[in-house]
Amino acid sequence: MWSGLTQFVLGTILCGSAQACGTPEYAPPPRAVASARLSVESTIGDVLEHRAFAGFARLLLPWDDRSYDTGMRLRDVASLLPYHSEVSPAVIVASLNRLIDDVDAGHRIFHDIYTETQKRDVPARRNVGLFFVRGRPGAPFALIAPGGGFAYVGSLHEGFPYAVAIAAHGMNAFVIKYRVGQGGQVATEDMAAALSWIVRHADTLGVAPSGYALWGSSAGARMAALIGSHGADRFGGDRLPPPATIVMLYTGHADVGSAEPATFVAVGDRDGIAPPESMARRIAAVRATGAAAEFHRYPNVAHGFGLGAGTSASGWLEDAMRFWTAQVARASRAGRDST
Predict the structure, then answer these.
(1) In angstroms, rounded to a whole number, what is the distance separating the alpha carbons of residues 201 and 324?
(2) Does residue 87 register a pLDDT over 70?
(3) Which of 41, 132, 176, 304: CA 20 to 30 A from 146?
(4) 65 confidence band (pLDDT: 50, 70, 90)
(5) pLDDT at 331 (0 to 100)
């Protein structure tokens, strides 16, 4: 079964429009048709050469240190994501088409977070960037860190599809392309820089600087949790209010701070990389700090399942959205009660 949000992501490719598959809570900008849309028969070369992605197309793709077979069809894109499972080319194509539609509608979808001077000082920072999928103007945002074992960044599977689904619920969503091959510390520094950049530019971006959530899968979940536990400033970012929620998928991360944000966890019971028991122990430790926490363990699901379409994990993102929005509402009530 496809979940409601997965149906929305697929709507633009399978139904012709999202509304044809059912009206989402927040409709995206009207689809323009100036640019060619992708299909599962499109190639990696079509992505790299697409005019909507000019100047940053390679950052859509997982690997920094290899050349691509530009003739590879997107139906075979799972071969670029060795640590991931349940990869759906249709979902990936639909999310890329959403980015194309946003460009055609006049929206900027990609932002540099490092200056030219910073990139000259550290050339690998040229592999860093931030993709933006708009929800409701002025709504809180999610910053999403895809996984990939710190070897690659699986934005195609765990970034852009999440962002499109989150935007369907009205929240704004950013996907960080971070440096790989240098371990978790450097990658987390990029996420902290991205978070700080978003908050500093919140007015221009049209997002609320408060009530934000950090989302991460596998390696990306470690990054999100580290910032949630210790703050962006620990990793070179600004000193910021803590996130309203951390959303963590299938990671073995065990570190817990003295004060933890509300945390949502999802993992498959056949995960041989991040055993469910390790995540259950971390959730228990988070609850011991007094933070709200929710733990979901899905049967017959392996590591790296993304949206989990067609598995028992299908619908986890809707549960995560419910959890996050509940934390935002609780904080809003507490703020009103204190005035």
Answers:
(1) 22
(2) yes
(3) 41
(4) confident
(5) 81
Mean pLDDT of the chain: 90
Do residues 171 and 142 make contact, with C-beta atoms less than 8 angstroms apart? yes
Please name which of 50, 38, 54 lies closest in space to residue 89, comparing C-alpha atoms. 38
Task: Give 43's DSSP letter.
Answer: B
How many other β-carbons are positioned within 10 Å of the β-carbon of residue 75? 14
Structure-derived torsion over alpha carbons of residues 145, 146, 147, 148, reported in degrees to the nearest 10: -120
Q: What is d(CA 114, CA 318) in angstroms, rounded to the nearest whole number?
A: 33
> What number is the average pLDDT over the span 265-284?
94
324-332: long-range pairs with CB below 8 Å, 24+: 324/142, 324/171, 324/213, 324/244, 324/245, 324/247, 324/264, 325/169, 325/171, 327/211, 327/244, 327/245, 327/262, 327/292, 328/140, 328/211, 328/244, 328/245, 331/210, 331/211, 331/244, 332/211
Average pLDDT over every residue of 295-320: 96
Handedness of CA 39, 108, 67, 88 (dihedral sign): negative
**Furthest CA-CA distance within the chain:** 61
CA 143 to chain CA centroid, nearest Å: 6
Question: Looking at residue 201, what is its pLDDT?
Answer: 98
Closest residue by Cα to residue 113 from 154, 156, 182, 174: 174
105's CB contacts (< 8 A; 6+ apart) are: 29, 30, 31, 32
Q: What is the DSSP string of 142-208?
A: EEEE--STTTS--HHHHTHHHHHHHHHTT-EEEEEE---SSHHHHHHHHHHHHHHHHHHTHHHHT--
Is the confidence at residue 245, as pLDDT, over 80? yes
Higher pLDDT, 5 or 46: 46
Tell me how crowded residue 284 is: count the other CB atoms within 10 A of its CB: 12
Residue 21 has pLDDT above 80, yes or no: no
30 half-sphere exposure, CB direction, 13 A CA radius: 3
